[in-house]
Amino acid sequence: MALGPRHLLGLAGLLALLSLGACRDNHTSSEVGAAYWEGVSPLVAINEGPTYHRLEGYDPRWMDLVREGVEMSRSYWGSYGPATVWVLGREEGTEIQPAAWTAFLDEYCAWRSEPTDMTSEDCLEHFGERYVEVTERGESEAYLSEVRDADTRLAELVFINVHNWFFEDDPLPDPILRGVHEYTHVFQQSIGPMPTWMMEGTAVFSEAWLPGLNGRGDPYERLMLSMASAQQIRDSDLTLADIEEIEIASDEAKDKARELAYDAGAWAMVFLVSKSPTQSVAGLRDQFFPLVRELGWEAALNQSSGLPSTQAFYEAFEAFMKQPPQEQRRLLESLKA
Fold this sequence. Notes:
Blueprint: H1 4-18, H2 29-37, E1 44-45, E2 51-54, H3 60-77, E3 80-81, E4 83-88, H4 98-113, H5 120-137, E5 141-147, E6 154-160, H6 174-188, H7 196-213, H8 219-230, H9 251-255, H10 257-275, H11 282-295, H12 297-305, H13 310-321, H14 325-333
Helix pairs in contact: 3-6, 4-5, 6-7, 7-8, 7-10, 8-10, 11-12
């Protein structure tokens, strides 16, 4: 299965999620992260799962696949929100009736504008035009965005034209993986600031690991594909440090965000788990991320890895990435559930 399109589209979603406006070159990644979270409470644990909304006329099976991935991810990471899922699209040879668009956008804008100062008219002008144009052009997107100006912070997962990512010979339908990936970001938004490579790396790792826990695919095979992608930047000077915050990353790092933040990031999480006392992936959920919430990501990284500094972690990880593939796979297979 080709990994590139999924990761590139995820990058578009990340930019939508983390957009902070123009940043001066002398801003540090920690300053940008702090600015994003200033005055904003993390998403909270809730009993209810997301609500699901579908554009009428778009085959329900696409929402069913997305829902399977979202719920697989939610059952592992926990339920956070409030969150909504919006699935829309138009398959080739079909038409979406104007009444269906009106009903969908009215429902969306009622949800989007009710807890904020945004009017329904402004919502329709901004989101209506965007959603209709993207759908009708046949483009595909999947991303997490949020409503930050509400009394209670809200999360929305948007999936557009996910049928373009479905291939009959895929062992696991890609729309399921999209759901896993994007809901992992919902969980992360309950934690606090963390670097881009940790956000996207954890989500890509989740795409491989969580279906495997449910007997859906081989996590080792998928992660070795990510390793092959990550190795494409071995002849550059780029490291995880160059993609801590994508908003202020160099153009070179942004151009290689798929290989660097997503694929190398996924293996950075593998490496982190391998350095932990238990070597248990569940420790990410049960120990590491709660520690990020308590101490911040750098202190949590150092404490969990047993390395004295973030730079020491980066250097140890780079040394690991230079090892032969069989050694990398051996470490991967040493992880416990």
